[in-house]
Every structure is written in C-alpha cells, then in structure tokens.
Specification:
Layout lengths: L1 H9 L3 H22 L8 H19 L5 H6 L3 H31 L13 H7 L15 H31 L9 H10 L2 H12 L5 E4 L2 E9 L2 E8 L3 H16 L2 H9 L3 E8 L5 E6 L7
Parallel strand pairs: 3-4
Antiparallel strand pairs: 1-2, 2-3, 4-5
Length: 295
C-alpha cells in the first residue's frame, strides 16, 4: 500500500509536484519554528556556507530519482521515496535553524528567521550587518580569520553552490538508458493505476512525438484511448499483406511484453490497430486481447 501511495505521487503534474515540494519545505520550516533553538549567533559568511550546504544536500537527494527503478527492483522503492521527500522537510528545518541563528546575529532575536521563506528575504539575512557586539562588526580581526578562514569558508560555499546547481542541471538533462530497470515500476503502475489511467497516460506521453516511423514502411500516425481500449492508427506504405504477415507479428511480440502492454491486456485491456495501406488503399482493424498475448 505504501508503494502505491508514493507511486501515485509521481503521477502528479509538474506544477502539483512543485507545490508539494514547496509545502514540504514550509512544513520543515514550521518544525524549525517549533523546535529549533539556536544557541549562538551566526556570522554572514558562515550563514552563506550553511545555506549552500543545505542546497547541496537537497540537490543531491534529488539524484535519487535516477535510481528509483533500481530501488523498485530490490524492494526499496518506498524507502528511497521517503528519503527523497523527507529531504525537503529536512531542508526546510535546517534553513529555518540557520536563519534563526543569523537573525540572532542581526537583531539579537531569532524571530526574523521567517525571512528565509519569503521572496528575497534571504538577501537580508545574507547582507544585513550584525549588531554592534557581533563578530560581523568587530573593527579588528586576526590575520588568520581575515586572510585564511573567511576566504576558505567563502570558497567552500561557492563550490557547494556550483556543485548543487550542476547536479540540478544534470538531472534536468538526464535521459534514462534503454536498459534501465522497468519491470518493477510497471508492476507498481499496475497496482496503482486502473487500465483507463494507464492508457490515458500512454496517450498523454506518446502523442506529442507522433507521427513516428516505427518500422520500415510503417508509421504510427496517432494514439487515442477510450475506456479500457487503446487505439493505434497505423499507415503502411506497401500493401495490406505487408502489415498482415510482416509488421503485425512483430508488433504483437513487442506490445505483448509484460513491461509494455502485456500485463495490462492480461487484466482486461484491449489494443485496437486501425491500419491503412497506401498502395492498395485498404483499411483493416485488428484487436489485441488477452487471448492474443501469452505472458
């Protein structure tokens, strides 16, 4: 059941996923408000370091999505999902904690920690000067602090920020290899979705790339769904016999694979092929049902 819950989260739209992450971050910030009690004020250079570290942690956790299929294969889908989603809460908590310490440095009170959770508020925490008794405004610093420690902390913060952003860019551009483990994810989809939902999602994901030549002389023109039926519109360049004795057996073998549509068909779904031949101007329909797929 918990696997199904986390899988259904992945079916949310991009906007819904973003809103969910934001909500988890704010929830973590609320936990910080309740439980985080900074013991000492934080200088601006240290705040920048810890803030960069929080962002690095959050970005690193998102790389876990690249291994979600592998995790499912080993029964760790829920565990990895919990870690990834939980990192958003942890991120919010840590940001509130360091912001409270920074607020303590600036105002003498941690009450302005909320500034990190409003647009541009973090810039106030980064650049505001501390109180007269804080380390930020001490007129004289030791040579080590001024020329070694502070530059080292600053460079480390910059390195963490750049690395975190690089991980985000890599994740955005990453393309899963063809041999990526999918069988376990397909099984989760079967448990989490109805046949109608699976077919509707297939149409949503595949339609933007159509028409597409999927075999020599065979083009998939369009894809649509209705209830527990998925409709394929094919155009074959040659005669209808080319499809009947050449393309059709190949399509049957491909689409009846459990990780493609075989498992869905076995549950009661149907694939409808509507085929048009350019050469002899014939149209013919094929229905693929449970009896046609042996899985």
């Amino acid at each position: 059941m918990i696997d199904v819950f986390f899988f259904r989260l992945l079916l949310l739209s991009e906007v819904q996923l973003i809103l969910l992450v934001v909500a988890l971050v704010y929830f973590g910030g609320f936990l910080g408000f309740l439980f985080a009690k900074p013991k000492a004020p934080m200088r601006r250079v240290n705040f920048w370091l810890y803030l960069a570290g929080c962002n690095f942690l959050f970005s690193a956790a998102q790389l876990g999505w690249l291994y979600i299929g592998l995790a499912a294969e080993y029964g760790l889908f829920s565990a990895l999902s919990l870690v990834i989603w939980g990192t958003a809460v942890l991120f919010g908590y840590l940001v509130y904690h360091i912001s409270a310490a920074r607020s303590l440095n600036i105002t003498g009170s941690p009450k302005k920690a909320w500034a990190a959770f409003v647009p541009f508020g973090v810039f106030w925490l980064l650049f505001a000067r501390g109180r007269h008794w804080s380390e930020d405004d001490e007129p004289i610093k030791s040579g080590f602090s001024k020329y070694v420690n502070d530059p080292a902390v600053l460079l480390t913060a910059i390195a963490l920020a750049i690395t975190g952003r690089s991980m985000e860019t890599y994740l955005e551009k990453f393309e899963h290899p063809e041999h990526a483990p999918e069988a376990a994810i397909v099984k989760l989809a079967e448990r989490a979705q109805t046949i109608e939902e699976i077919f509707a999602q297939e149409v949503l994901l595949s339609s933007p790339g159509l028409p597409e030549q999927i075999d020599y002389g065979l083009t998939l023109q369009s894809l649509s769904n209705s209830g527990q039926k998925l409709y394929f519109r094919f155009v074959v360049d040659g005669p209808m016999d080319d499809f009947q004795y050449g393309h059709f057996p190949w399509l049957l073998e491909q689409y009846c694979q459990p990780e493609v549509f075989g498992a869905v068909v076995d549950k009661g779904g149907s694939l409808i092929f509507s085929v048009s031949s350019k050469e002899d101007r014939r149209d013919k329909n094929y229905t693929i049902s449970k009896t046609d797929c042996s899985i």
